[in-house]
Protein 1
Amino acid sequence: MTSDRLLPAQINWACGTCKNPILTGVVHLSFSEINQAVSAREEYERRSKEQQEHGFIKIGDLASLMSIPRTVRWAAVCDGCRRLEDHHCGDCYAIEVTQMRSVFSLFKWTRHLHKKSWFGVTDWIDFAADIADANGPAWESTGVR
Ligand SMILES: [Zn+2]
Ligand SMILES: [Zn+2]
């Protein structure tokens, strides 16, 4: 086993926009999308509960019950692309990638984000698991599919 195998699994962030490696940039999502998703989720749950209580679905509610509210997707973006888009994350929850350089810090951020009321409307678990998959040690097999 070479010594670099013993180091924490570093994350090599790639920009979701230009696909280049990110040296400085953020992992972000927008609060307006979060708020929309939270209201949509509440509305969905209210209708589901109503339907369970009444035992029938009102015609107009069928479509909304068929479509589970979508989740808000996290994205990694480099500072170069943010500059081009004149995007300053004013309306974002943003984490600097320099604060998330290893799979271990990813786990710490998961603990922090999990406490947010809006955690469940985002795709963080899948996002983080994909990052861990892509950056985890090659010798490790968890058996998880
Ligand atoms: Zn970029
Ligand atoms: Zn942003």
Protein 2
Amino acid sequence: MTESAATEAGSVVNLKAGEIQAMHLSRYDGSALDFTHLTPEAFDPALTVAADRLPLGGVGPLVKATLDRYCVQCVVEAPGYRAMSWRLQVHLACTRHHLRLASDASNAGDAVSRDVVETQAAVLSRLAPSAENQGFFQHLHAQLVSEIGPWRSSLDRRVQETPEAVLEAFGLAVARVMSPGYPDYQGFAHWPSLSAARHLRPPDSLAYDRSLHVFPHLLPMHHFTHGLADLLHRPQIRQARAMAAVGAAMCATGHPLGVAVRLLPERRRGTTSAMLLNHLVQLEREGRAEQFWRSCAEAATQLIRESVDYRHREKVCGDENAYVIARSAEPSAYPRTIRTWLVDQWACTYTSSNVRPSVRDGSIEYFDRNFGPGMRAALERLLAERAA
Ligand SMILES: [Zn+2]
């Protein structure tokens, strides 16, 4: 509700406006609920809208607009007490009394297992609004849909009919959300790749939040051959290096695949994202997903340390001057390979049509060993002059 409405309501019951606001579901706005499309005025008590006609349907998975479930024992101990989270469909059990929440006296008070209590506690610990917690609930929603269908409209009924089955499905959905980086376990092999990409996150994050320009479109060879080349040997090397670059960006930022892939030019995103998902599922089945993430995190750490602006290099790369300078630095280098080298080893982009998949037979690495250092030094000087 608006600040002035909260102040007014507070003056009646002798509470501060902030205390009144904290009693409202908007406290979960940005975690389990989303009030983005509702203005505070919709909840002004002066409007005298009947409680069951409040526009709450769209904000998220509530038990009902006006009702909630409750813990029988909590109410016995403190008559009149209502936990605000009891309004949420994702609150199924009391973590203090280990009882299933009841919607009326007829189904009151089944005991639940320790596993259910732990699952429930994990969900309730995510209620503070933050981008991370919002992602958690969005993913939980998607997992519940995949596990039990359109649950928002039917979970309340189902939990009364078959509580064990619902609690088990709920437990599995939460466990899957809490296993980032393992798409096979998370069930993504059977999801449409767009929604899987939206929810596939790396297991750990370096919490890097600065420019993505330190991540090239293709992972540079010296990072790629260090472990990732073995893991990603099935696809073409160029695709594999793009997948590795996206994996490194995910590990650095903690972003899901669907966001990290924006690193790449638009036309490359769909394919790369679908391929990365497929290959990661394969790696996981072979017990090598952990190795993949570890190698990506190592690559990310080094890229951040090197702090090269690849977008800047990409621009310089298209400049004829760069070619001339690289060529005069190493006059004996085969001139046409210089163009490939510029894009592939130095700017690490997709932008040139000159790039041939010559990395396959090792000729570019050979070329790089012989001429790379001299050309790199000359180009770094060019960049320094430009920056000055
Ligand atoms: Zn209780």
